[in-house]
Amino acid sequence: MSNVIVKFNQTFKSVNQCRKRYRLLKGSAGSGKSVNVAQDFVLKLMDKQNIGANLLVVRKVDASNKDSTFAELSAAINRICGDKTSMYWRIKQNPLELECLVTGNKIIFRGMKDANEREKVKSINFARGKLTWIWVEEATELQESDIDILDDRLRGELLNPNLYYQITFTFNPVSASHWIKRKYFDIEHPDIFTHQSTYLTNRFIDEAYHRRMMLRKQQDPDGYLVYGLGEWGELGGLILSNYQVHEFNTSFERFDSMLHAQDFGFNHANAILTVGFKDGELFVCDEIYVREMDTTEIIQLANRKGLSKYLTMYCDSAEPDRIKMWSDAGYKALPVKKTEGSVKAQIDILKGMKIHIHPACVNTLNEIQQWKWKKDSKTGLYIDEPVKVLDDAMAALRYSIEELRTPQEYTHVVMPMISGIKRG
Hints:
The chain is α/β, with parallel strands linked by helices. The chain has 16 helices and 17 strands. An eight-stranded mixed sheet has the order 3-4-5-2-6-7-1-8, with helices on both faces. It has a seven-stranded mixed sheet with strand order 9-15-12-11-10-13-14. The radius of gyration is 23 Å and the shape is globular.
């Protein structure tokens, strides 16, 4: 692989050369920090000078790895190796594992959600080499005690003199009161390396993304400091906190009812959520979240994914032509009936429910974590109006409770269909 050319952002050159024990990358959304870290690890694990190195990738919820870190590392492998990927890497889906066939070095994935998962981390061993590197993605999700457990795993003599122990953190610096800031950023220590990046230094970001960030800067300057410039801040005014991220059975049979909800987009995301209801609780089971795809392409994608045509699909009523295209394609697409105050009414219903989010719905999770009320520039107080940036999945989530908001308008249309599914 000596002739491989990999494109890196120059802003991460010092990151990739760092050998300190703690390597912390805080940055804005779209800064490219996770893409860089994935490429960096793939290249290092393929290097024969690093034989005996192994990487543990950690998120709070283990299942979140599949559609985030595992997907990112797999994509990096494919970019680097191209059509020779199978010659250099073994990619396993169950359990998630990546093994370099050149060096024997491995990448494994774990979560730190509960005591059982933490015990599994403590017992990690490799047939070849040792655990040398740890990547903690979305590090602000973890507790300080979780990192202490991980840190304790990096110990003992390394037989290969080229190797070194290191924990890499990647995250958006949401709160200035977070323990990560106190532990690593508020002190100077020879074992600590910190780095800040933004979407402005990412040469691979498209113009549409820049425009979205400029819109956020105008409408949500506090949020822009965090998600646009990677600054420490406080994201006050969050709309929803009554949600839980965990794995659950997403089959029709376990729910009282089920439906799709869609917010149309092109330059901003087009979001389709599949939502189930059980005992008064809401479950976000699956998502389609794409940009710069026209309706025909999205319908084709939905067909390939096997999106059910038996379920009602609530859609943004401002796009009747798109609703007709979905209906013509065999989906039970209906417009959401928008009225004055309907957005606030939808949010009030959502705030009164327990919301479950499947870890595969990474974009829904990303949006709900930063979905917030607007702040009045004169008074500094939050007002009952959501910030209209990065809210596409949240719009779909609002549409999903349309039957609960106006049940009298949908009883004859929807309930017989749901009943039919339950019988089937």
